[in-house]
Amino acid sequence: MTQQPFTPVTVRQYPKIDLHCHLEGSLSLGALREMAAVTDTPLPVGDRALHDLLIATATNPETTDYLKHFQPVIDLMQTAEQLEIAGADIVRSAAADGLIYMETRFTPTLYTQGNLTLEEAIAALLRGLHAGTKTYDVPVNAIVCGRRERSLAELTTVFETAAKFAGQGVVGLDLVGDEAEYPTIALADAIRAAHATGLPIALHAGETAPVDNVVVVMSLEVERIGHGQRLNGFPAAMARAKRTGTTLETCLTSSHRSVDLPDYPNLPLQDFLNAGLKVTVNTNHRTIADVNLTDEILALHDHSDLDWNQLAQLTHNAIDGAFLNDADKAALRAKVPVIA
């Protein structure tokens, strides 16, 4: 494994994978201005003012305050043209960050407040992703999300609609929202509906709610857990995660800033690595959390002495957990240094 130092240049050049990146929290300021022009929506003058409107930089704010930063973006994603711009932009960001693969999460019911149907919203996003991949040569697929607080009927419709785009860029399903108010055990029927589509599932659990949520997810045979840091300190639950090979999608900077977690150096990625879990490192909200994967990895190196071998392990874990076929995974592995 290379012995070169960890610098912004060397880490950016390293072939990285982001499995947990929400579209609406990750769009560039330039893309948002382009999207605003589509509907003549006024935005703050100057990038500093727009930056301050969108980016949550305070450590551990109230989650409801953190979430207010999403609304201006959601308002700009109500037409097909705007969603196409958004899709192409997230691929551009992936390329600029040195990624070789990304899965972006997308909640289509948020973008049907105008005239779009669910199918039209998903199709528009995929057109943008495909255009971006053609331009920047980075594959980016979509995970379609339902909202935990919605009815089983609505969630089933979302999942069945998403499944129509399997093989066209939709690779998985998720449930997002307040996991403390809507615990995983109450969503068992919705998770079964997701399984019925044949698409794999990456479910939010263990970010803001207790470890019980993560244990329930594992019992429902979900392939990946979004966040999952509440596993730490529970040996039996961690052993189960190792035994099942469940992939954990940690998003350390975003979680540190948005929920009541300890200081960044004490977040559990190293504990998960040491326990042999299939842990990965991701961004969650690139714009709103003001982070990219290069900066996330540099922070891990500074705070917890992450080394190149561990970065390779994280990256190979991400390949193992990616919602891709074996041939596509093999192509990604060929780009990543082997673990010494």
UniProtKB/TrEMBL annotation:
Residues 15-336 form the Adenosine deaminase domain. Keywords: Hydrolase, Metal-binding, Zinc. One of its GO terms (cellular component) is cytosol. Pfam families: A_deaminase. One of its GO terms (biological process) is hypoxanthine salvage. The keyword Protease does not apply. The keyword NAD does not apply. One of its GO terms (molecular function) is metal ion binding. Belongs to the metallo-dependent hydrolases superfamily. Adenosine and AMP deaminases family. This is adenosine deaminase.
